[in-house]
Write a structure and sequence with these properties.
Two copies of one chain form a homodimer. The first copy, chain A, is about 65% helix and about 5% strand. The first copy, chain A, is mainly alpha-helical and about 425 residues long. The mean pLDDT of chain A is about 90.
Chain lengths: ~425, ~425
């Protein structure tokens, strides 16, 4: 960006959708990011912040003072504001709260009272409700008189009782294609199940995906309508879940900024390397128990990574399948036994097959049939142990409130290293010396 | 399921949404799955098939004859039919085609002419179009006269010229809240960019996510409207992409059935184990080069997995970040240099830090300062090499048309094993003997 063309670049930038501006910011290294952020229209700042991932947003918020943040927050929807406010320092949050009119403050406080990963945390309180006894014609006239149109992503109006209890939804498409003299009650759809405010975000996402929903009403325990969830926020949940699974196996967090400052990245990664180092040293300690054996039969040192690696691969496959099964709600304590027995059968077949292959190669290489027999046994044992661990770990960790996407891989590696080295070197010590 | 309650179970099952029935089927082992499938209403079979993942769907289709498949396919939307037909044997496909009326056959053939992972493959030809010069009142009356309502997930009508060229969209919400005497041209939205039919599914998904779209029009190179893409199909793309990334690192395919038959699973997994075995044997071969060294200093055999493991972890973190960056369109040849230098800086810091830690432990353990120095050097080198490979591999593989989510991990492991063992044992041979 040469200085002469700054004005042109600014104009181009601000012609973009806030989401696209956010995308540009996320694709830039920190220094350029700061320059480009300065070029963003003040009126668009709030929207752009919403589309940034957590790390980048935090970085930018840290560079803004309270007045700037207040200005950016102005004009945002309450549910978006709730997302933003959760990342702000407490002092700024209370300033934002006191800058709002009473209705918006109340709504924001309601939104903040639910955890971010619940239906209540996802919902938007801006709903348009209608009563069942009025005619469609009345609804049509009412809509035409609304000054500010309908909220974004409105595909239906929520039908409520006099007490504000959920009754059903009136799809705009049905409103448009039915006889205006019909009543709302005659045309409304009854089979859209409202979502309780305390439902988990993951379950909400699965329901949206299964039923192809655009929006869904959220209710309190008394059946009163609190707001609605829209598909754009659900897509974010799906993306975050997926990122969490994929990045989690490498010990990265889902808000990870690809262009985070070096020191921040280094500090975060260091933790993961340290945890894995403990695993590696545990494996080294196991090998150390058999120093005398290795000294006599060096071939063991050559072949031992093969034993650990085969277990690791087989176990990772089962672990990955189980983690995904739980996330999609397809795997639970009810059918885990079936998965375990199926995976163990697969492991037995593949363990034996590859044990034979490895044994043959080892025999050809070192001309020692005992080593061949020992490595075959060790691989079979390790593949079986790894598979059992891979299948059971996710459910067990989940039960104890530990995140399998994060911890599963490390624990599995520990199992496959320890069982692999222990069985291979242990058997060798027993039968070779 | 006791035999007495079969009728009750059947009733309960068929009260569910087809997507929920599919979910039940996917959570069941093969034998029970077959029984439950028999209980599904014939009229719902087509819909249920659509919601199943590839493996389970194939399994069930294999159990059906052509007449049954034809019956199930009846009444499906053309775009759904296109998804289904792609999994059928050619003979059944042509039977399905000839069973359709001319209009549907033509539409199906159009849909099949685009690759499954393009905008054309995702689109649904069922669009409602309006002309810009008519008034909203005319549109409202036209809609009310439509016998079969509007297609599912309709949030706008597409405004086209006399030649069928895309002009803009008329949101139903605007139609409902504007003056009926206004013309479509006055009320329509111009800033929804139509999607070319040959756009990649991944790019379509990113656009839907960024712009919070519900539907988007698809056009041919002349700007003529071919159909529209709906958010439910986009969510499937996002889910499949995510599954592909997450399952790919374990060598599993995204359509993987958790409860696939043992022999099928075993055969598929065997391939992945075999590929990884080659990597493991390459590592063993490298170690084998230094048998004489290990025989003299057994501590090397004890410590060598630590060197390989630290490289593996550091490299996997960078690889994971780069794969995700490419998928989200945030990483390209343009900014890869920045990522590489940032990741190398992180690697240098963490490599040195943990090299020091490992060296200290090795020194305390074996009381040999040369080994400590050698392992520190080897770890630093391996972490740097692994990081470089992790950052560059995804773009390079992508360039050659190889899938980084699948091949990246295997190649990275090869690099970290070879560099790790070679540097550690090589340095030891040079300086210890």
């Amino acid at each position: 960006l040469e200085s002469g063309s700054v004005r042109k670049a600014t104009r181009m930038l601000n012609a973009l959708h806030p989401a696209e501006i956010a995308h540009v910011l996320q694709s830039l290294p920190p220094r350029q990011r700061k320059i480009v952020w300065q070029m963003v229209d003040h009126a668009a700042e709030g929207e752009v912040l919403l589309y940034l991932n957590d790390d980048v947003r935090d970085e930018i918020l840290r560079g803004m003072d309270a007045t700037e943040i207040l200005a950016a927050a102005e004009g945002l929807d309450v549910d978006d504001l709730a997302d933003l406010v959760q990342d702000l320092p407490a002092k700024v949050t209370s300033e934002v709260l006191s800058s709002l009119d009473e209705q918006r403050r109340e709504r924001l406080e309601t939104a903040l009272s639910y955890p971010e990963d619940s239906a209540g945390g996802l919902m938007n309180p801006d709903v348009v409700t209608v009563r069942p006894e009025v005619t469609l014609d009345v609804v049509l006239r009412y809509l035409r008189r609304r000054k500010d149109g309908l909220p974004e992503l409105t595909d239906n109006l929520i039908v409520v009782s006099r007490q504000g209890r959920y009754l059903g939804v009136l799809y705009l498409t049905d409103l448009l294609t039915s006889d205006p003299d019909d009543s709302v009650a005659e045309v409304m759809t009854l089979d859209v199940q409202p979502i309780p405010a305390d439902a988990k975000a993951r379950d909400v996402a699965n329901r949206f995906e299964q039923l192809d929903l655009i929006t869904a009403p959220v209710i309190d325990p008394d059946g009163r309508v609190l707001g609605r969830i829209t598909v754009d926020d659900v897509m974010d949940v799906i993306r975050e879940e997926a990122d969490h699974q994929f990045l989690g196996h490498a010990g990265l967090s889902e808000g990870e900024d690809m262009f985070a400052p070096v020191l921040l990245s280094a500090r975060r990664r260091a933790v993961w390397l340290g945890i894995n180092l403990m695993t590696a040293f545990l494996a080294a300690w196991v090998i150390g128990l058999f120093e005398a054996t290795i000294e006599k039969v060096v071939a063991l040192a050559v072949l031992m990574p093969v034993v650990a690696s085969m277990g690791g691969i087989a176990g990772t496959q089962t672990l990955t399948l189980a983690i995904r099964g739980i996330a999609l709600g397809q795997l639970s304590a009810k059918n885990i036994r079936w998965l375990v027995s199926k995976e163990m059968a697969v492991a037995a077949l593949n363990g034996l097959l590859w044990a034979l292959v490895v044994a043959s190669i080892a025999w050809l290489w070192f001309g020692n049939s005992s080593i061949a027999l020992i490595i075959a046994t060790a691989i079979t044992l390790n593949v079986l142990a790894a598979t059992l661990a891979g299948a059971l770990l996710p459910l067990v960790l989940d039960r104890f409130g530990i995140d399998p996407a994060l911890a599963g891989g490390v624990i599995l590696t520990t199992v496959t290293d320890v069982v692999g080295f222990l069985s291979f070197l242990g058997l060798a010590t027993l039968f070779l010396l």
